[in-house]
Amino acid sequence: MASHIVGYPRMGPKRELKFALESFWDGKSSAEDLQKVSADLRSSIWKQMSDAGIKHIPSNTFSYYDQVLDTTALLGAVPARYGWNGGEIGFDTYFSMARGNASVPAMEMTKWFDTNYHFIVPELGPDVKFSYASHKAVDEYKEAKALGVDTVPVLVGPVSYLLLSKPAKGVEKNFPLLSLLGKILPIYKEVISELKSAGASWIQFDEPTLVMDLDSHKLKAFTEAYSELESSLSGLNVLIETYFADIPAEAYTTLTSLKGVTAFGFDLVRGSKTLDLIKGKFPKGKYLFAGVVDGRNIWANDLAASLGTLKALEGIVGKDKLVVSTSCSLLHTAVDLINETKLDKEIKSWLAFAAQKVVEVNALAKALAGHKDEAFFSANAAALASRKSSPRVTNEAVQKAAAALKGSDHRRATNVSARLDAQQKKLNLPILPTTTIGSFPQTIELRRVRREYKAKKISEDEYVKAIKEEINKVVKLQEELDIDVLVHGEPERNDMVEYFGEQLSGFAFTVNGWVQSYGSRCVKPPIIYGDVSRPNPMTVFWSSAAQSMTARPMKGMLTGPVTILNWSFVRNDQPRHETCYQIALAIKDEVEDLEKAAINVIQIDEAALREGLPLRKSEQSFYLDWAVHSFRITNCGVKDTTQIHTHMCYSNFNDIIHSIIDMDADVITIENSRSDEKLLSVFREGVKYGAGIGPGVYDIHSPRIPSTEEIADRINKMLAVLETNILWVNPDCGLKTRKYAEVKPALKNMVAAAKLLRTQLASAK
User: Quick one: which of 102, 275, 588, 647 is 20 to 30 A from 359 by CA?
Assistant: First the structure.
């Protein structure tokens, strides 16, 4: 019985790629150094899967930034502003597209479907001259083959690539991106031809957009694309992989009818209804790659249940045509549980990271072939039973409090207009008030202090003293820059979700459970294993200390319940919304304690609210109802004079703007600059927004420093569609990933732009 892995984490068990990338970007190491680290990681991954007995091992899933940008490079679809003159795309052009450079901004970055992973959005139009400009897919296949590993090269499918793209600046917004299919397929043919010549016997096309609500025109594009590729693909086994949700019935019919395709991969964890489609009709003689091992969470697989599912499928597709697989790429999980030496032993027994999931896939394949490892299956059953019966999972008081939420929509008593008036009387802010999103640069010294405190190398008094000094430095800098509403810079926090999870019950933490978010950025999601509550105040001490250092308003900084949920590995033994309500009650306690401590502005970040939106429209309203309700629970009890902010970043918000309004925050700061201000189009189209709003005026994920004039121009675009009295001026996101040498001039220019506009508005009266 064959086994398959859709994709694997790239960063390495100790984030080796992250450090190699950052060293290269900082000019401390060469391209050759970066390439060597990368080659060592790939070799290790391929060997690990080969040693585990996996038959279908992926290649070309490694990336220096993301797989969609890799496809843009493959197709030579480089926007003109990067000055690329043809030939093989090198690091300079590649990383300029991803991160920008001193003279031009980066391309837009957005979330990969409903995950916390990001991709660089291709910018396309009728004049793009496509060419075969990156041989990475073929090179990596050859690299693996030279090591004795025959892999399945993975490409982002041509239709999904176009559907995930956007019209370039200056191109009509309704430009039909699928009209470019005929221009990119010749390049796919070149790649396929080279892979065949190199000896590939399988090829995998990832077409995840098939799980979306696609109209017949878009579905027809899949038929056209693979019909055109059919002769090129002759002699290869061709796998089309889908993931993240159920595939709709019409898309399933289209997919399973594609010419030249040998195999179909489905997510049977998040797409359980797809089983009914398979049972109803599956094409004779084709392979089914059954994604029964969860690629997006870290809980050990229920091997007995999965084996039952696989046996039922075996009866439909045939023993020799069933392949055991992961539900999606393991990119979305942590790398290896073996590195977690400090994790509670009982909780650890409930988990499986990427390395363990590879073993699970192979164990299921062997069991299906009649070689069941009874000891492995027994240990798995014992771990599942332990988790189900463990008293640490359940807290009756929390469940009772969450159940009592029913029957109220938890809205503040006064409308937002009246609240803003009351807040302005108290805060006395100028028009176009300036602020930042929360974090300031995390310096090497600051990281050292936190690390030494955690390792008990310095005392609590020494730690508090060092953090207060850092806060004071950040406060003084903001005052010097003349920012209106300050933040304390979050020096005590390595990660916004991890920080809160460490202080909430029901959470567990890893040492090396890193997951890539984008580029070199990694996050370490907490593990929610039980009912959630707040034993003690979490931020009041630091916020109060920061407020005591200035007469200006100081924001209390919290992470919202939906973001904590979506950026954690969430328990799978109860509905997600029930866990979210528990977190909301914990954050509500913190909000009310901050208010009692005279913190008059409280930001409750919901950066990941849009990210969790289900991919299918039929499931979206239920999610938005409980997600927005969870946010309102956190602040429904505060006074009118307490100003509640929220923040959202790097997603397409236009389709959920009414839910954002329904959150009833006093002020929302929201990503805008990197997406060519497409957020503003909502307001141009007539949506009325009465609360305060701060669309980001510059992109913090690029080292580029915007000029005062550039920022003023952005603000003017905002003023064309938003009322002056509700507009805030702020960056796109927190500043923790930047250096002070970038932050200081950028914020200086931002404040100068706000003052310039204030002067112009005053003189125009």
Answer: 275
